[in-house]
Amino acid sequence: MEKRLTKEYLDTLKKIFKLRSELNKESDRGSILMATSFLEYELKRLFEYYLIGNKKDLEEMLTGQGGLATFSSRIKLAYSLGLISKVTMDDLNIIKKIRNDCGHNYETISFEDPSIKQRIYYLKSSVYAGDNKINPKKIFINNVFIILSEIQGHKADLNKAIELTKKYSTNVPFEEIEKLANENLKMAKEYCGENATIEQLVEYIKSVQLETLKGLDRAKNGPNDINKEEE
């Protein structure tokens, strides 16, 4: 599929390249916090583009106490919807942990700290993945750049989710209905006996099939007062 090279897409790529330059200038703590914030924001924009709903409803989901307000929830749902790969999800979770290391430590943060360096060496998206001789900050920034590029590239190919409007249909060919009726009648006669009255056979079939009938009715027409039949 040909990517939609819109002005928004190209402008975002420019921002990503600029971010890469800014991350190199920042302190290690600043680089981590800035990168994570940008990743979190781009996932938010991805959901705004893909999910169905008006602006107000989406904003409620994506901010404050909404279900997609956290970095963690956005990572999980993006993967579950197929918007990011498992490798990207795993890397984002590692980056989230590195961000948390910064938040829980008031001392100077360095990419050379053993715990942070170890996490960085687990990242898989970077072109330097697996090379422990490379400067960890370089790996981290390259990894962030690759993930952001992947999100934007996938977004350019992505079609917005389609609202479900088609109702469940119970249209079945007459032959299938006749076959099912005969099977139900045979089952009822085996249970009630060959001498059972029509009323007895119908009552048995009704008792066996009631839950199925209620489920089909609910799927087709929504909740109703079918339960009153049992009162």
Gist?
By secondary structure, this protein is an all-alpha fold. The chain has nine helices and no strands.
Task: Walk me through what this model shows.
It is a single chain. The chain has helices at residues 7-25, 28-50, 55-62, 71-80, 86-103, 114-120, 136-157, 174-192, 198-221. With 231 residues, it is mainly α. The radius of gyration is 29 Å and the shape is elongated.
Question: Percent of residues in beta strands?
Answer: under 5%
Overall spatial form? elongated
Helix content: 55-70%
CATH topology of the largest domain: Four Helix Bundle (Hemerythrin (Met), subunit A)
Order of helices and strands, N to C? Answer: HHHHHHHHH
Low-confidence stretches: 226-231
Q: How many domains make up the coordinates?
A: 2
Could you give the topology of this structure?
Elements: H1 7-25, H2 28-50, H3 55-62, H4 71-80, H5 86-103, H6 114-120, H7 136-157, H8 174-192, H9 198-221
